[in-house]
Amino acid sequence: MSAQDAVRQLLRNTSLVARIEGTTLVIDNGQTAGEVALNPVVVTAPATRAGDRPEAYAGGKQARGSRIGMLGDQDVMDTPFSTVAYTAEAVADQQARTLGEVLANDASVRLTTASQGFSEDIQVRGFGISGGDVGLNGLYGLTSASRVPAEILERAELLKGPGAMVGGMPPGGSIGGAINVQTKRAGDDPLNRVGLQYLGRAQFGSSVDISRRFGENKEWGVRVNGAARGGEASIRGGDQKLGVGAIAVDYRGSNLRWSLDAYAQREEMEDFRPQIGFNPALTSLPKPPNSRSNWFPDTDLSLDDKVIASRLEVDLNDQVTAFAGIGYRKGKAQQIFPTTTTSMNAAGDFTVRSSFYDSYSETSSADVGLRAKFATAGIKHSLVVSASDLRQESGNAYVAGLTTSPSNIYNPSPLPPVEGARTEPNKASKAHNYGIAVTDTLALADDRLLLTLGLRRQTVDLRNFSTATGAQTSSYAKSATTPLVGLVVKANDQVSVYGNYTAGLSRGATAPNTAVNAGEVFPPFKSKQYEAGVKVDWGRFMTTASLFQISRPNSMTDPSTNIYSFDGEQRNRGLELAAYGELQRGLRLMGGLTFNRAKVTKAAQYQGNDAYGVPKLNANLGADWDVPGAQGLSVNGRVIRTGSAWASNANTLKLSGWTRFDVGARYRTQVSGKAVVLRANVENLTGKNVWLISGNNYLTLSAPRTVVLSATVDF
After folding, report:
1. N or C end of the chain: smaller count of CB under 10 Å?
2. Which residues contact 203 (CB under 8 A, 6 or more apart)?
3. Residue 531 near residue 81 (C-beta atoms within 8 A)
4. Interstrand relation of 83-87 and 617-626 (parallel, antiparallel or unpaired)
């Protein structure tokens, strides 16, 4: 809907008439015979700037649109995908600490790792997404492989389903969704904000956020923010320290937009929580211990990431825009890491040894392209041509202890010491992912019908090395093509019906030496998605519904021929219902339901079984309410229901479903003329202790009841 159409809708059933003259909105009285004419009302405001991020939707928690890879920022009603974008306001009011905690507001998203682990893994539409597969301002490979801190978030965006066509192939080949983080920018108004935070049992933190804009038209912007916290959070006796600092510089001119982002992130955790292996032959699991329990005493983890990235857009004329982005990340990790030498049994017994596991990774990522708008034969075209390039080197060093120790999840033993000395990580792999893509969105029938067609040619070049000798042990170089067909039909300005067929790309493999076709190299495999849905904008409340099917090839070795192939398949079929916005003044809602039937449709074993670790039903409902008669006071609550899921491929071991309740309050006031916001949240109010599936034959625990308090002051 154009700005003029929106104003006309507001003035519907009145005698007023609106017209736009340049950047001025003029409202006239629609005079008829015998009526007295009123003077025109003139409202002047800055025109919407190219490059501005989509505005927040009613209620302020979600955005009106999001970045759709090479297509750029798109309104939710114009995209043939299911998308969601959470705003900085949503992040702040939830008091989220990580990206995953924000995205978990969506019923199609679940976290498969809990707090204070070595990573944050996210499941979307039943498929996993690792921390390293998150985009930063449209570029993959620039976020920490562990977790993305909420302190850098301006927007948290999710495109559900495979996103390789529009965003390129993520380093880990995730297909459940494409996640993108938009970093903070300086707003039009100066910002000076400091904050204090308390969470868990004894963790304290502080934050600062300062921004300014300069120039005659505020072309230049600078924003600096940082946070630090430390102390016992979710694991009894554990100490988790976090430090993050970021700086963003941007320029927004009449035909040129440029940005530079740099941030550093460091975490140190004593007694962190890795997952624990269990015997898949079990038919029942031991009762979960208290979520604060430390079942691996004496673990230690330090993570360090440094990132710099830049993006440029230039309007060559009114129809053509050139864009480019480039970034670099260097990360390293050191761990005193437990390895279960005997998996956990039904009584909670296991044996464990300690190891040193250190690693590093370096990534450079870039894209370049053109967006052009033109018309032929009465059909409008939005053509995009883009190329992307990602290079990543990773290495590790593993020193295993020789001593094993018996332990139990209810009465854990300290880790035995590692007898060997720590060694420096050596190169283990080098990957080069590059590709070129083209899309064209055709607008017909007065923009009521939008057809998007696209192709991407992607190449993956992977080389593996011995960390002991440095010699190359294997190599792999293959290409694949992935398509996109997307359709949006707008019945009117409030209703969009859409559908898409697209494919995700994941790194292929080489047949093992035990197979008849040993050494055969397989190209990147394609996961196919079919989706159809409807979006209805009720003015201040958005409702969406979608049906999807994603089929992902799996590797398998035929038991009769001993031939290794990617002929295996997992198929996830689902229905998603979602709603968000301001249901009435002062009452904001976010909610949804996801039904997912995940089946193993082709396999050497377990064909026809339900897929491992995918709940059949997820449900979310969150509410945020301004209390009448108590100016500045708001209360909120959230219910998250996660359905049962199989914890064995044989479908003999099942995890029960569970329900989590969160509550909170917020108070906005003025103290000595300074804006003050006080927030209090309680997560997992009932303190449920629940097993979470964390990869094949691994489990972890849900986060315990957690109190989060904070105060911010703008001065």
Report:
1. C
2. 229, 230, 231, 232, 233, 240
3. yes
4. unpaired
* Rounded average pLDDT over 368-376: 97
Query: Would you call 485 helix, strand, or coil by DSSP?
Result: strand
Token pair 């109190």 is found at 707
Cβ–Cβ < 8 Å for 181, 134: yes
With a cut of 60, say whether residue 53 has pLDDT above it.
yes
Alpha carbon 327 to chain centroid distance? 19
What radius of gyration do the chain's Cα atoms show? Answer: 26
CA distance 12 to 1: 15
Rounded-to-integer distance, Cα 617 and Cα 601, Å: 20
Report the sign of the C-alpha dihedral through residues 53, 141, 267, 696, in that order: positive
pLDDT at 15 over 90: no
Contact 163, 439 (CB under 8 A): no
Structure tokens at 98: 């990580």
Environment class of residue 493 by beta-carbon count within 10 Å: exposed (0-12), middle (13-18) or buried (19+)?
middle
* Pairing mode, strands 239-252 and 256-270: antiparallel
Calpha distance 173→458 (Å, rounded): 12
Order of strands, edge to edge, in the sheet holding 698-701? 276-277, 698-701, 691-693
Q: In 10 A of CB 220, how many CB atoms?
A: 16
Residues in CB range of 567: below 8 A, 6 or more apart: 553, 556, 558, 602
Rounded to 5 degrees, φ, ψ at 89 are -65, -40
DSSP 8-state secondary structure symbol assigned to residue 89 = H
Residue keyed to tokens 């700037």: 49
Task: Give me 279's structure tokens.
Answer: 């015997």
pTM: 0.91
Q: How far apart are CA 496 and CA 75, in angstroms?
A: 11
Supply φ then ψ for residue 493, to 5 degrees: -70, -15
The stretch 369-382 carries a mean pLDDT of 96
The answer, yes or no, to whether residue 137 has pLDDT greater than 60, is yes
Structure tokens at 149: 């801190």
Whole-angstrom distance, CA of residue 163 vs CA of residue 176: 9
Written as six digits, the tokens of 468 are 């002991």
The torsion of the CA quartet 331, 336, 341, 342, rounded to 10 degrees, works out to: -100
Token duo for residue 424: 């420096």
Q: In the predicted model, what is the mean pLDDT of the chain? A: 91
Other Cβ atoms closer than 10 A to 32: 7
pLDDT, tens digit, 9 for 90 and up, residues 576-614: 999 999 999 999 999 999 999 999 999 988 999 999 999
pLDDT at position 697, please? Answer: 84
pLDDT per position as a tens digit, 666-692: 999 999 999 999 999 999 999 999 999
Taking the chain, what is the end-to-end CA distance rounded to the nearest angstrom? 38
d(CA 70, CA 164): 10
3-state SS class at 651: coil
> What are the backbone angles phi and psi of residue 3, rounded to the nearest 5°?
-60, -40
What does each C-alpha distance from 682 to 96, 113, 195, 635 come to in angstroms? 12, 19, 19, 12
DSSP 276-337: EEB-TT-SSPPPP--TT--SSTT-EEEEEEEEEEEEEEEESSSSEEEEEEEEEEEEEEEEEE
Residue found by looking up tokens 């904050």 in the block: 195
CB 635, CB 681: distance < 8 Å: no
Q: How far apart are CA 257 and CA 320, in angstroms?
A: 14
> How many angstroms separate the CA atoms of 408 and 411, rounded?
5
For domain 183-218+228-714, say whether CATH 1.25.40.10 is its number: no
List residues bridging with 207 in a β-sheet: 195, 227
Cα separation, 175 vs 193, whole angstroms: 38
Name the one residue in this structure whose structure tokens are 């019945």: 491
> Does residue 412 contact residue 293 with C-beta atoms inside 8 Å?
yes
Which phi and psi (to 5°) does residue 476 adopt?
A: -155, 130
Measured CA to CA in angstroms, residue 124 lies from 105, 108, 177 at distances of 12, 6, 6
Nearest to 617 by CA among 639, 590, 592, 650: 592
